[in-house]
Design a protein that fits this description.
The structure holds 2 protein chains of 2 kinds.
Chain A lengths: L1 E5 L3 H10 L4 E6 L2 H10 L3 E4 L5 H7 L6 E4 L4 H14 L3 E6 L2 H9 L8 E4 H14 L3 E7 L4 E7 L11 H4 L5 E8 L2 E4 L11 E6 L1 H11 L11 E4 L3 H12 L5 E4 L2 H10 L4 E4 L5 H6 L7 E4 L4 H14 L3 E5 L5 H7 L4 E3 L1 H13 L4 E7 L4 E7 L11 H4 L7 E8 L2 E3 L12 E7 L3 H7 L1
Parallel strand pairs in A: 1-2, 1-4, 2-3, 4-5, 5-6, 12-13, 12-15, 13-14, 15-16, 16-17
Antiparallel strand pairs in A: 7-8, 8-11, 9-10, 9-11, 18-19, 19-22, 20-21, 20-22
Helix pairs in contact in A: 1-14, 6-9, 6-14
Chain B lengths: L6 H14 L1 H14 L4 H18 L9 H26 L7 H12 L15 H16 L1 H10 L5 H7 L13 H28 L8 H12 L16 H14 L3 H8 L3 H6 L1 H24 L6 H16 L14 H10 L15 H19 L3 E2 L2 E3 L2 E3 L1 H31 L6 H12 L20 H15 L3 H6 L2 H4 L2
Antiparallel strand pairs in B: 2-3
Helix pairs in contact in B: 1-3, 1-4, 2-3, 2-6, 3-4, 4-5, 4-6, 4-8, 5-6, 5-20, 6-7, 6-10, 7-9, 9-10, 9-11, 11-15, 14-15, 14-16, 17-18, 18-19, 18-20
The chains are: A alpha/beta, B mainly alpha.
């Protein structure tokens, strides 16, 4: 399928490289430098031009394209791109927007703005934050198979009971599969004798309750279980949605916003949140608010620098966990290096969501691990799959190296994958796959 | 000096209202003709209002009402209707009502839906005169101005300003985009409630449960129940009737003090609005709490009532009557224990829901005061916290909260000053008035309830008070009914100066 991606920013580039293996990609951007960079960096065609102009779109082949993804940083541009595409063809249009308002409108009347699928960066990021907040010690959480299966990434801290154990010894949780580890930034496939060292990250796939039980074991001793006391710093749109989703989960978060007018606006919109009007970088204020006793501090101001500062201050005061929003993707790792527990990048979340959607039919759901070194895929298998009709033990040798069967669901029931489990047609299989063999695995499965 | 207010417009519009006052005057006139009692007391004001009204209408051609002129018009119209209302009492010339001060008191008490009376011997007055009192209250109930709005807006007068100033309807989120249609809807609802009550009361009479309740009594009481005003053609008020009547009147008093917008939506089947209204729950809670408290005291203290049914009936009736500012008496509550009387006294300050026929401070204001104060306590502990005050899901603006605080405070100051005046003026003429009697009389007139305790108790009258006190009370009823501001604004120099 020919896919046109408009906007070669972080989101566009991520999508382009994720899809380049299986589709023909044309990337359009107004910035000649970005176009040039992309031409060298990925196996796709980059085109300089304005995505909202019909001429450029025609040049990119819009009439033959199966899908157009508008992923620039500007909401209105993205909407106009989709609208323009619809005037000349019936390519499936995907738009990325920040403002959840547009999403609301689009959800009310499908096809509004000429958009067939819309992703709201801010809402998506807030959902990510809330999922991470829900599991102590989790760095990343994604639901699969309609919520029956969860994939989660945790950091093994020195105080944890699991530190120093082998995977075989740690594998005592029912309905939970150790998919892989990240050691020094490298993805390692889990084997029985692989040791879990402090500082490693471990990726597990399993039933949500099992993941939660695991998270309690991996969390530092003495930390409370479920997060109750959450402080959101920054009344950005992401901050607002985060507080709103936390309210919906029955929590009473605190939200700190410096601007008096915005603080009032938020206080009116969030009946279950205590809105505080203050500068969140004021240490005295943070101390007076007992931020040291907070379970989680979420930094969601509009600026990366401020998020970093706020998270470090909170960390320093003694907050249990800090989660920071990082707009600039390349800083995410840095944030986590200097001691922030989780850095969430809205652009990555968006790219993931769009790629996930694009793969639909074939791949139902997907998560990117550690800068795309590995992927977690959900696939509904049919009779032609190498997995079907025999125990997993027998089918694994037919698959490339670097695949772990994480979980299986059958008729909306969780099935624990063991060596002797027989996969049936129609099952949903959640796989942990090395990025290099994704294409081969998809062909086989 | 040039006036900044175009008073001619205000006076001209008052003229229009006066001109139409002949319509309600016809009802007692017909009754007088039927009974064969003097008709002159009604014929004269009919001729007078039409003439004077038509004359005032010629003052100016301009009809463009601004907020400034609306204040003057509201204040003047209530005052002038009270004056017109007094004319039949003076002309009839019977009993205590013959004195002009008393007549003005009775008329103002009527049109402001207070229900405080100066009549000592009810038998000396014709049925037509007593019916006129009820008609005045019924007109004052929903506000003559709503009627006027319907009339005036058909003359393309800016009705919106009127609705703004007539604070009773401030919370009427316009039911329809056109003000005249909204006013018409409210009046239909009002008329419907009144008609239903007449049917219920007279129905009780027909089935033999209310031998005293004639058609005349049913109409007169329906007029003064739904308007939460409380004049009764009987000296013994509702105590003259059977328990069945007393029970039947309670829901109509309560409905009259319920927001008419809520009633309207409830009748259309939208019950959720009622359930989701914080103010309605608060109002019902207040009625329930005080009924229970008074009932418990009556049981514990003994008192004049023997059966549990009569205690329950009188406790609920009296609490509903006072909270809604109706002012009926189902029994002489002067005989109750001091604790019960003081609880009823507190009820005078509450009032029913905003946007109804009730008076006093109103539950909406108290609820906002309570919520805003709770918020202030919270922010005292958390100085940087921002917490808007919410009412039925919506946010109450800070400006509104300030206005409500101010209004409540000014009301209480008015009450204190009025109490002091009543005591001082009584001692001038060597009339013995206790503090509680003075306080209750001041509160009862200012909050348009009606009866007080002791001297001016439910079966007694305001007649013994000196003329000066009565005139001050006329002012209190006037100011209290139109919620202070329209009158007080007129007293500020900057209102008049250019």
């Amino acid at each position: 399928m020919l896919i046109i991606v408009v906007g070669a920013g972080e989101v566009g580039t991520n999508i382009a490289s994720a899809l380049a293996g299986t589709h023909d990609i044309v990337v359009v951007d107004v910035d000649p430098k970005k176009v040039e960079e992309l031409t060298y960096a990925s196996d796709s065609l980059a085109l300089e031009g304005d995505g909202t102009s019909l001429e450029t779109l025609r040049e990119a082949g819009v009439t033959e394209a199966g899908m157009v993804i508008a992923s620039t940083d500007d909401d209105e541009t993205n909407l106009v791109v989709c609208g323009t595409v619809k005037t000349v063809g019936d390519a499936f249009t995907v738009a990325r927007v920040r403002d959840a308002n547009y999403l609301g409108t689009w959800r009310q009347s499908s096809g509004a703005f000429g958009v067939d699928f819309m992703v709201s960066t801010n809402l998506l990021t807030a959902e990510d934050i809330v999922r991470v907040v829900g599991l102590p010690a989790a760095i990343d959480v994604d639901p699969f198979a309609g919520g029956l299966v969860q994939m989660a990434e945790f950091e093994v801290v020195a105080e944890s009971d699991l530190a120093g154990e082998t995977v075989a010894a740690a594998d005592r949780f029912e309905a939970l599969t150790f998919a892989g580890l990240v050691k020094d930034g490298e993805v390692v496939f889990a084997r029985g004798d692989t040791r879990l060292d402090a500082g490693d990250r471990v990726i597990v796939i399993g039933r949500p309750e099992s993941v939660e039980a695991f998270s309690r074991a991996v969390a530092p001793v003495g930390s409370r279980g479920e997060a109750r006391d959450v402080v959101v710093v920054g009344g950005s749109d992401i901050g607002y949605h985060t507080a709103n989703l936390l309210e919906a989960r029955g929590l009473q978060p605190r939200l700190v916003e410096e601007d008096p007018d915005r603080a009032w606006e938020l206080a009116e919109a969030l009946p279950g949140t205590v809105v505080l009007e203050h500068d969140a970088t004021d240490v005295e204020f943070l101390r007076a608010q007992h931020v040291d006793r907070a379970d989680v501090v979420v930094a969601a101001t509009g600026s990366d620098e401020k998020n970093l500062l706020v998270s470090l201050l909170a960390r320093n005061l003694g907050a249990d966990r800090t989660v920071a929003v990082v707009e600039e993707g390349q800083y995410a790792t840095l944030f986590e290096t200097v001691g922030i527990d989780v850095a969430i990048n809205p652009r990555e979340a968006t790219a993931e969501e769009i790629v996930r959607f694009t793969q639909e039919g074939q791949v139902e759901n997907l998560s990117l691990i550690e800068g795309r070194q590995a992927e977690v895929l959900e696939i509904q298998v049919d009779a032609g799959s190498v997995l079907v009709g025999r125990p997993i033990r027998e089918s694994v040798p037919d698959l490339p190296e670097g695949v772990v069967v994480g979980a299986i669901t059958r008729d909306h029931e969780f099935v624990v994958p063991r060596g002797d489990t027989v996969v049936e047609p129609g099952d949903h299989v959640v796989l942990f796959v090395d990025a290099e063999v994704v294409g081969a695995v998809m062909d086989a499965v | 000096m040039r006036l900044r207010v175009d008073w001619r417009i205000s006076v001209r519009l008052v003229g229009t209202i006066l001109k139409w006052l002949w319509v309600p005057l016809v009802l007692p006139l017909v009754l007088a003709l039927y009974d064969g009692t003097p008709t002159l007391p009604f014929v004269v004001p009919i001729a007078g209002t039409v003439l004077v009204g038509a004359g005032l209408e010629r003052l100016t051609e301009e009809r463009n009402l601004q907020a400034r002129e609306a204040f003057l018009m509201v204040s003047l119209s209530w005052l002038s209707i009270a004056v017109v209302g007094a004319v039949p009492f003076v002309l009839a010339g019977n009993g205590t009502l013959a004195s002009p001060v008393n007549a003005l008191f009775e008329s103002m008490s009527g049109v402001t839906t207070t229900g405080a009376t100066v009549i000592v011997d009810f038998d000396r007055h014709s049925r037509a005169v007593l019916m006129w009192r009820a008609v005045l209250q019924w007109l004052g109930g929903l506000g003559i101005l709503v009627l006027a709005t319907a009339v005036l807006s058909s003359l393309a007068v800016g009705g919106a300003q009127l609705m703004e100033t007539e604070t009773q309807t401030r919370d009427v989120n316009k039911l329809t985009p056109r003000i005249s249609e909204t006013a018409a809807l409210l009046w239909k609802l009002y008329l419907g409630l009144t008609g239903l009550q007449v049917a219920v009361l007279y129905g009780l009479h027909l089935v033999g449960l209310a031998p005293e309740m004639t058609l005349y009594d049913a109409v007169a009481h329906a007029f003064t129940t739904v308007s939460t005003s409380g004049f009764s053609p009987r000296g013994a008020s509702l105590a003259a009737f059977s328990p069945a009547v007393q029970w039947a009147v309670i829901p109509f008093m309560a409905a009259g003090a319920t927001s008419f917008v809520l009633l309207y939506f409830t009748l259309r089947g939208d019950v959720d609005r009622l359930r989701e209204s914080d103010e309605f729950r608060f109002y019902v809670g207040i009625l329930g709490f005080f009924s229970l408290a008074v009932g418990t005291i009556l049981v514990v203290d003994g008192g004049p009532h023997t059966s549990l049914e009569s205690i329950a009936r009188h406790a609920v009736f009296q609490v509903v009557s006072i909270v809604t500012t109706t002012g009926y008496a189902s029994t002489d509550f002067n005989l109750w224990s001091s604790a019960a009387k003081h609880l009823l006294f507190v009820c005078m300050f509450i009032g029913g829901m905003a946007g109804s026929t009730t008076c006093s401070i109103k539950t909406l204001r108290w609820l906002v005061v309570v919520k805003a104060f709770r918020r202030d306590l919270f922010t005292a502990a958390n100085p940087s916290a921002i917490r808007p005050v919410r009412l039925s899901g919506g946010v109450v603006s800070e400006e509104t909260i300030r206005d409500i605080y101010a209004y409540t405070l000014v009301s209480l100051v008015f009450f204190i000053l009025a109490t002091v005046f009543v005591v001082v003026d009584a001692s001038r003429v060597r009339l013995t008035v206790t503090e509680f009697e003075a306080m209750s009389a001041a509160a009862s007139t200012f909050f348009n309830v009606g009866p007080a305790f002791g001297l001016a108790g439910p079966f007694a009258s305001y007649e013994p008070f000196p003329g000066t006190t009565k005139l001050v009370m006329v002012f209190l009823m006037w100011v209290g009914r139109i919620e202070i501001i329209p009158v007080l604004v007129l007293l500020t120099p900057s209102y008049w100066r250019s």
